[in-house]
Specification:
Helices cover about 50% and strands about 0% of the residues. The chain is built from 10 helices and no strands.
Length: about 190
């Protein structure tokens, strides 16, 4: 199966496609782990993420216009579109990180599942699903089992409008209405999903 077909098949049918790890994974593994489970809390887990979402993020980092990173840009600047596609498919087929045992965070759960209409915060689950599995066709990422600190960093980046690659600014608008406690508690909840 060709890689483009594999991405379409994986996204439409939600079925993992067995693709061998490209040689570039060695470079990515230093920060994201060999199978997409990052050893650091402030870097993302890539395992199980939708291939099209990973690919979009790689393109955003490479252009630097909507998502800028002094770490990522030089790492991917020389990657071909084909290599980025191979990386995206590989990481999408890896199993999610292990659940991080934690006490249930009722505030984070409530915000994630129901939002807070009075403060203009819609339910995160409306786009990312009740189990945090995202929506591949819409390019809404998997959030389940993501590193807590990474989620906090990203929500703050949306809040401060330093991350601008969200659909029509929706995450920037939502994060603008969230308190530091909301952000932390949602991140804790997601890490344990």
């Amino acid at each position: 199966m060709c890689l483009i077909c594999a991405v379409v098949y994986a996204n439409v049918y939600a079925t993992p496609v067995n693709i061998a790890a490209p040689a570039t994974v060695v470079v990515c593994a230093a920060c994201h782990g060999e199978h997409g489970h990052s050893p650091r809390e402030d870097w993302p887990n890539l395992a199980g993420q939708h291939a099209n979402y990973i690919l979009e993020q790689l393109h955003a980092f490479r252009s630097g216009k909507k998502r800028d990173s002094a770490i990522m840009k030089p790492m991917i600047s020389a990657l071909s579109d084909q290599t980025m596609l191979e990386l995206a498919v590989f990481y999408s087929t890896q199993p999610l990180a292990a659940v991080i045992p934690s006490t249930e965070n009722l505030h984070g759960k409530a915000i994630y599942l129901h939002g807070d209409r009075a403060r203009g915060i819609p339910a995160c689950s409306a786009c990312h699903g009740p189990a945090g599995q995202g929506n591949a066709p819409a390019s809404f990422p998997v959030l389940a089992r993501q590193n807590k600190n990474y989620t906090v960093i990203q929500l703050r980046a949306f809040q401060q409008k330093t991350r601008r690659n969200d659909l029509r600014g929706i995450m920037q608008d939502i994060a603008a209405n969230m308190t530091a406690e909301d952000i932390n508690d949602v991140a804790v909840y997601l890490a344990g999903l």
